[in-house]
Amino acid sequence: MQRSSRREAIEGYIGISPWLIGFIIFTLGPMLASFYFSFTDWRITVAPTWIGLANYVKIFTDDADFYQALKVTFTYVLITLPLNLTAGLGLSLLLNQKVPGMNIFRTLFYLPVVLSGVSVALMWMWLLNPDYGVMNTLLSYIGIEGPAWFWDPDWALFSVVLVNLWRVGGGAIIYLAGLQNIPPHLYEAADIDGASLWDKLWHVTLPMLTPTLFFQLVLELIDAFQVFTIVYIITDGGPLRATLFYLLYMFRTAFVDFDMGYASALAWIMALIIMGFTMLVFKSSPLWVYYESEGKND
Amino acid sequence: MTTLPTTRPRATFSYKWSQRFASATVFLILTVFAILMVGIPIGWVVLTALKERAQIMAWPPVYLPNPIRWANFTDIFEQLPFIRFILNTLFICFMNIIGRVLSCSIVAYTFARHRFPGKEFLFLLLLSTLMIPHQITLIPQFALFQKLGWVGTYLPLIVPSFFGSPFFIFLMRQYIMTIPRDLDEAARMDGASTWQVFWYIIMPLCIPPLVVIIVLTFLWTWNDFLNPLIYLSNYDDYTIQLGLNMLKGRFNIQWNLIMAGSLISLFPCVVIYFFTQKYLIGGIANVGIKG
């Protein structure tokens, strides 16, 4: 018995070793290394030299692009999070009805989620073309002169929001799974009490869905800091730095200017911001996330 | 039964009709959304890809291509070595799929079935790495691969996949947990070793999560732009996404050609998606609930 459990433990460590080794080599090691690099002046071709806090000092006191990148990314988060949460929730409520052809609808709305990369960026660049794109062509029929979208500093960021909203089906499918997990007896009980549709949505559906919403909120938050391909291809951060997303700025610093030390400091600031927000969401979750197992106690 | 109030049948009747009315409304709303969100964008791109250049920029707009210009698709292959780009990308996709399937399933199986000290901590560690954005490690990983002399080769795009991926390990571990242990025990009685149980009992039962891993790995690798952009410098090694980026530069404002190229890149994704959407949507929805 003793021997067999030792054997099992050894097999266990061997079994998880691909992930554990990979974690150390490709995640933990690089993270620690980048922490060190963030205190150095390092131009890829020459060895890094220690400069203490100089990178961080420069970032916070003398880097307009950094503040612009933060502003762009946060503005995007502030618009896109509530927009995608409500739109996704609304769509999932529709997709949860008994309607002929529902599987086809679900398949269609999820399609944009599996399409990504340069082709999608090019596609939207054309669809939102100010003169010949389908968006402004359709708008012109109802008498609206469409904006220049990606080419107008006031509209460029919103255009990125719009492209992201196209993928609303991704969240909707996850909420849908959450909706289908809500026990029907809760609705039956509400019916007996004479609850309206609105009451049921507000007092049954939403509370029961909060764990799923919570999960999606964290994911979308992390996602917002990963916006890259669409702005690299379409706007290159412009016009007038209106779409200078954080990752694009970091990419430029590291792989265009080859200022690796400075870019490492930028990366760590981003990591701390994401970690801070994730913690905030987690810490605040007892206030608004409802877990059924807790409710059962009282 | 006879005591039932006489109004009851009429109530059921009107209830049925209001139900039908509601479901017709939902159907209508969904149809409009589907046309706006999927039909019009994709339709416009397809029509553009079949037009002559003059028709793209005509005003008032010309909707249907006349004549249909299939040559847009062949022109691209003449201008850029697109076949080469596609083969390069397929090779990277194939290697990533092999790497991910092997590593993730072994690790997931171990986490699901073995007992060993520190397992709970290690699994928690794995879950917490789900929250680490890949971008933090972008620069030091580049430094690492440069030290190894791998920059400019496919190795940085392939090798990491052989070391698992937290999301897929989690997905597969959850699935293996639902397979009854009796199956393992029975095979062990017949003298099967741990790895034989894994290979002959567990793996064949794991088709649903494996399909998710294979399809998502393909889609992510096929559509990945940032990593090839950083690591590949040789024109002959380019992936399809880098090729599309070149297309944009080369055919400036020739949107019929650019859209044709985009469609070529989107086509395999759409086909694979339609064939596997049942597994894909189900698998992802499950993770969302449990997570």
Explain the overall architecture.
With 298 residues, chain A is an all-alpha fold. Chain A contains 14 helices and 2 strands; from the N terminus they run H-E-E-H-H-H-H-H-H-H-H-H-H-H-H-H. In chain A, a hairpin with a 7-residue loop joins strand 1 and strand 2. In chain A, helix 3 (64-95) runs parallel beside helix 7 (156-165), helix 3 packs antiparallel against helix 10 and helix 8 crosses helix 10. The longest helix of chain A is centred in the N-terminal third of the chain and has 36 residues, at 2-37. Chain A is globular, with a radius of gyration of 24 Å. With 291 residues, chain B is an all-alpha fold. Chain B folds into 2 domains: 7-49; 78-290, MetI-like fold, CATH 1.10.3720.10. Helix content of chain B is 74%, strand content 0%. Chain B is built from 14 helices and no strands. Chains A and B meet through helix 1, helix 3, helix 4, helix 5 and helix 6 of A and helix 1, helix 4, helix 5, helix 6 and helix 11 of B.
What percentage of the residues of chain B does DSSP assign to strands (E)? under 5%
The third-level CATH topology of the largest domain in chain B is MetI-like fold
Parts with pLDDT < 50 across at least 5 consecutive residues of chain B: 1-9
- Head-to-tail CA distance between termini of chain A: 44 Å
Strand content of chain A: under 5%
Judging from the principal axes of the Cα atoms, what is the shape of chain A? globular
How are the strands of the largest sheet of chain A arranged? 1-2
**Individual helix count of chain A:** 14
The topology string of helices and strands of chain A comes to HEEHHHHHHHHHHHHH
Q: Briefly note the structural class of the backbone of chain B.
A: mainly alpha
Biggest interface goes to:
A-B, 93 and 89 residues
Looking at CATH, the homologous superfamily of the largest domain in chain B is: MetI-like
Query: How many domains is the backbone of chain A divided into?
Result: 1
- Name the average pLDDT of chain A: 87
Shape of chain B: flat
Strands of chain B, count: 0
